[in-house]
Predict the structure.
Amino acid sequence: MHTEPSPAAEQALRDRVRELTRRSTTWKVTGEVMREINQVTRGWGNYFAFAHHHRSFRQLNDFVAHRLRQWLWRKHGSRSGKYERWPTRELFGSYGLYKMPSNRA
């Protein structure tokens, strides 16, 4: 049987991540925001872990990294490019952003 997260469930996760990375939250410490995002994505990912999730998880990992990168860029007001200053590998490595399992390395 083929099951996967519904579009509504994916949208709920995106909305929650948007809420955590709003412009009005840039006063928070980066580690606190990372912890909150990790709790949400880890819980969502574990709930849907037994579904056919690889496409969804890959797209949602990209979305979460993009939102966090935007948040960091707004927080620090950097003139350099978002992708140069905070590459995806660094977000998931050094910053400790939780990466939901997908087929892509």
